[in-house]
Design a protein that fits this description.
369 residues, 5-stranded antiparallel β-sheet, mainly beta
Length: 369
């Protein structure tokens, strides 16, 4: 994207947090215009006491977006919602003790159903995998029991039609797992992390152009600050890069058009406010950007590849008043801050942005102060 293109942000919905006013679901539209500060427009607000949108939104075949809230709903355990691009929001389902607690986002399967995980719940409390119809009928199809993982993250669709994911804890050493789950609920643990090969994987997995999955652990590895790893569909794990104090712990990966992987760290870099990095599948790590608070601070999610080959992302803090930013970054490390959030517009954007078929980006802010 060149200097004649900008991102316009419009807010679609909100959440609440302790001591805070609601946050927001946002829309970022690509427009041909001169780059300039942007002013979000509020389109929808959840009522106070709402439900904490969590995980990126997913576009369905009907053009609407589907997502989850970490709390709220009839039982207080979270919901699935549907929101149109004009800001009309409907709650499709509420989670309960049978379906699980605290859902972590959705992934669209080849069969037209949505699949997701709950962070907790199930017979052993370790979380569940569920599938959902477009009208909100939820069926739990697999449960975690600590031995096979605890606290599953979002799912990634494999080329074989199965889903692959990570659990942030559990497994043989308690440091998390990589798993495969089929659409009929057959769950297989592929990897158990042990600290040396990484610990506490987060967020989920990214399918590479070679058919393998790539992911990050937030801790562990040779320096204790996390790793980038490769895992095959049969569970062969290779640690590609160990992170250290200077680089910070990685927060997910996105595949670029050049076949390399790109991601962010929440901390580290020359100013300690986080970085954008590139890692080759051979394991060569390059820091592309160091955030300095003025241009953003502490990115808490991965990157999204735009149709222009440029990456787009958010920082949780930093910018003009410290409420976070939306940015674009090229593969050679040229960073442009597109939005600095103000409290009235939403604050602290959390998960990665979602690219829509209409060329817009969708995402969420975690709250308004």
């Amino acid at each position: 994207m060149n200097m004649k293109t900008l991102i316009q942000i419009r807010i679609l919905g909100v959440r609440t947090c302790a001591g805070c006013l609601p946050g927001a679901i946002l829309l970022a539209g690509l427009l041909a215009a001169h780059a300039q500060p942007l002013q979000p427009e509020v389109l929808f607000s959840f009522p106070r006491g709402g439900a904490n949108p969590h995980g990126n939104v997913v576009q369905g075949s009907d053009g609407s977006f589907y997502g989850t809230t970490y709390g709220g709903g009839s039982s207080g355990y979270g919901t699935v919602f549907k929101v149109t691009t004009n800001g009309t929001l409907n709650t499709l389902a509420s989670f309960d003790s049978a379906t699980g607690f605290e859902p972590n986002g959705l992934t669209l399967g080849n069969d037209g159903f949505f699949y997701g995980t709950t962070h907790a719940g199930g017979s052993s409390g370790g979380g569940k995998v569920f599938k959902m119809t477009t009208n909100g009928a939820i069926t739990a199809i697999a449960s975690f029991n600590i031995a096979n993982g605890y606290g599953p993250n979002a799912l990634a669709l494999g080329s074989d039609g199965s889903f692959y994911g990570t659990t942030s804890q559990g497994g043989t050493s308690g440091a998390g797992t990589v798993f495969q789950v089929t659409t009929n609920g057959t769950l297989t643990t592929l990897v158990s992390f042990n600290g040396t090969n990484g610990a506490y994987p987060y967020p989920g997995l990214t399918l590479g152009s070679d058919g393998n999955f790539y992911g990050t652990t937030f801790q562990g590895g040779s320096s204790g600050y996390g790793t980038v790893f490769k895992v095959t569909t049969n569970g062969a794990l290779t640690t590609l890069v160990p992170f250290g104090f200077a680089t910070g712990g990685p927060k997910g990966l996105t595949l670029g058009n050049d076949g390399n992987l790109y991601g962010t760290t929440y901390e580290g870099g020359s100013s300690g406010y986080g970085t954008v990095f590139q890692v080759m599948t051979s394991g060569t790590l390059t820091t592309l950007v160091s955030f300095n608070s003025a241009n953003g601070a502490n990115p808490d999610a991965g990157l999204t590849l735009g149709s222009d080959g440029i990456f787009y992302g958010t920082t949780f803090q930093g910018g003009s008043i410290g409420a976070g930013t939306v940015f674009q970054v090229t593969t050679n490390g040229t960073l442009t801050t597109l939005v600095s959030f103000a409290n009235s517009q939403g604050a602290n954007p959390y998960p990665e942005l979602t690219l829509s078929s209409d060329g817009n980006f969708y995402g969420t802010t975690s709250h308004k102060k």
